Amino acid sequence: MYTNLQFKNFRGSVVIAAITALLLVFSVFFPISAYAEQPLISNGKIQTKKNNFNVVVLGDSLAAGYQKGFDTTSVPYGFGEIVYEQAMFQGNRATYANYGVLGLRSKGLLNWLNAAEKQQFITANDVQQGLNDPRVDTLIGDTKALYESITGADLIVLAIGGNDFLNILAGLDLTKSVSSMSADEKNALVTQLQTSTDEYKKNLTAILTTIQSLNPDVIIASQNQYLPLPKLTINGQVFYGDVPKDLAELLIGAQTNLNKEFDTVIEVFKKSGLHIDYIDAASVIDGNAIGLTDIVTLDVHPNATGYQKLGEAYSNLLWGEFKTAAARKAGDPLSVIVNGQDVVSNYPTKVINGRTYLVLRDITTAVGAELSWSNKTQTATVQLNNRTVELKVGSNTYVVNGKSYPLDAPVFLETIGKENKTYVPIAALSSGLDLFVQYWGKQKLVFVNN
């Protein structure tokens, strides 16, 4: 709840600030054209008939992965990116598109979705007045891209609602206790909170109805609202900075009511057949808002650790686990993950001119391919399913099913101890074998999935 507020200081005096051009600009990866069969949630885990898995992230600044201090060069690593990463850890040929917009409210998202459903052009101001996002005109105006992303999605990660309550907090003196308010002031505050909750519930229902209409088989993973109050327990007593306890408790009660209404909406859609569930973001963040957000430094968005915790919660909701790469050996520049498992090698991974190389036998064993080697021609022949790839040491071409293709990362031999080892570029071999390959720079991972 109120997830896009900024704290004036750690002790709790609050100022509501318009979010300006601090927003990041990041690449948006659109799903491949091939349509994947839809997965189903079963016992808390995703099961797929095919490995293609299209992830779409939708919502406000939390969906965008915004952190305090981001500028136009920042690359996000929020829970949306973590979910995409985990989809690859699960062995999927995953794609990813992020439509998170700073400052977006539920009504704005609904307006955007309605335009996308009709594939009609819409301006940022038509969606919502005052959106200060350097990508906003291009991103929001391209409703066809949003339509195609939603209709082709296997999973939508949805985070929306925090901005719906900004106006209430903007007009509230958070140093004034409820007991010092007049009856009219208290009633007005309670009414505002309830009215905003009702409006959010109505908009969320309409948002989910639209998504369900566009893609009735999609999985939706969402989250409830956390409350950004600095909370400390000292000698058994709970303190909320300079926010009086009775006011904090009133806001916590409003949050509880909001999340109860949120749960009611989700249950209605579950019964309608929509594959939807949510993480309890309030439980993740509220118990340690100081450690998991940047409220100490004037911003209540999650910090890197906070996004990590939310991402772990999403992964556990979707797949029943959260996977990480094994610790790298000293000197290894990155890790290679094949079908969700680390490639363990006695020989170093190499990165040469931006290309990742592994010892030939290690990568072919990992992907389950057959390997033969000609000493005479110094050529490796790799077979997997209906693909045959020939890689010759030093050649600027390689052969796939009898057809030659250019190769800008040649195979080479290297003497390691008393052994000669053949190093091959992972990307070229994976492409030749029709495997999915993705370099994930944030964590220095290369995913190769069948």
Tell me briefly what this model is.
This protein is α+β, with helices and mostly antiparallel strands and 450 residues long.
What is the strand and helix layout of this fold?
Elements: E1 6-7, E2 14-15, E3 40-42, E4 45-47, E5 52-59, H1 61-64, H2 79-89, E6 93-100, H3 106-118, H4 124-127, H5 136-141, H6 143-151, E7 155-159, H7 166-170, H8 183-214, E8 219-223, E9 232-234, E10 237-239, H9 245-271, E11 275-279, H10 281-286, H11 289-292, H12 304-319, E12 335-338, E13 341-342, E14 350-352, E15 355-359, H13 360-367, E16 370-374, E17 379-384, E18 387-392, E19 397-400, E20 403-406, E21 412-416, E22 419-425, H14 426-432, E23 436-440, E24 445-449
Parallel strand pairs: 5-6, 5-7, 7-8, 8-11, 12-24
Antiparallel strand pairs: 1-2, 3-4, 9-10, 12-13, 14-15, 15-22, 16-17, 17-18, 18-19, 19-20, 21-22, 23-24
Helix pairs in contact: 2-12, 3-6, 3-8, 8-9
Key descriptive features of the protein:
24% strand, 5-stranded parallel beta sheet, 24 strands, Rossmann fold, 450 residues, 5-stranded antiparallel beta sheet, Copper Amine Oxidase, Chain A, domain 1, 2 domains, alpha+beta, disordered N terminus, 14 helices
